[in-house]
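--- STAGE predict ---
source: upstream dedup step, 1 unique chain passed
mode: sequence only
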Amino acid sequence: MAAVHRLTNGVRVVCDPIPGLETAALCVVAGRGARYEDGARSGWSHLLEHMVFKGAGARSAMEIVEAIEAQGGQINAATGYERTSFQVRCLTGGLDLGSAVLADLVLAPRMDAGDLAREKQVVGQEIAEAADTPDDLVFEMAQAAAYGDQPLGRSILGTTGSIASADPTSLSDWRACLYDPQSLVVSAAGAVDEAALLALAERDFGGARPPATGAPAAPPAIFTGGEAVSAKALEQANLVFLLPSVGVSDPDYFALRLFAEILGGGMASRLFQEAREKRGLAYAVDAYSETYADQGVLGVFAGCAAKDAVELAKVAAGEIAGLGQSVGEAELARAKAQLKGAMFMMRESPLARAEQTAAQLLLFDRPLPPAEIAAGIEAVRPADLARLGAAMCASGRAAVSVLGPRQAGPAAQAFTRALFARA
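--- STAGE serialize ---
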């Protein structure tokens, strides 16, 4: 079981040794991200993640990556709606440097005006690239349709207008709020010693101080739903269907994960068999769940010929409704095996394990033992999936995005009409 400690300033430290490894992963995870932004600061958390790599502590941008790579390590970062993570993978003995570098990134980045101007250009190119990538853009369209002008409805990247307003001082103030020590978790897994990790965390993160202005709070999310249809000259239509569901702390969380697995999680799933194997409507079709602290969504993505988009939308609606009415014991058992298999396979990666443990600490204030998670998965019954499916179908709310040839546009209304007429 991973051991958890709390420094006097609130930073939590978790150590999860994995015997027999010659590598370790160290993550510094802040329990805040793009969901904590107002409209004027949309994209600032992601911009900040870029900026800290331009120079931090006594190291320049080049010296940061050179120092890690010279010891055979790798360094990376990611911004999400509810968390921001900085990660180092290293060989045995590399945690000392890794901890020092990550502490500089999180607590002592330089905020040079010239670097910021250049990085705004880089992020602007990233925004443009996402807009030019259909299977990225269609998900952003669906997210906006689901949550409107709430933080969860806005792109994590922000807009060129919103990031333009950031200056070194305001971005530094945002860093202090975002990476408040009360929200920080230092998590290590792999070839790591608990006493050594705790000493490094105290050395590098024990001096972190809370922001002078107080930390921001995330507003409650309201799934409003709607349609987003954009005609574009593409070879395929890209479709996303979202339904409101439960959050990660809800008792039905595992029911949602299993619902998505049965619906479209693999080659034996209902959508794959019906839409692709039997009807040949799509090459790519899958279902997934996206969960936040307080709520989540069931999602379906598909890419198909424009002429097949309406029929595919009806098939997706039919499979969701059908799964909500009847789930077989055999397919539920298969889904449980798949979900547990994915969980245990992930735990063989030190980086995934360190990230998962940090997320659990931020959400539940404790690591969740694998046996407890497995028991939660096994406890789900067909009646739980039926209840969850009925609730989603009875909500009367969906977010649908369609991107591609004009002929595919009616798929949005076809989905909602087919699904809610069955409720």
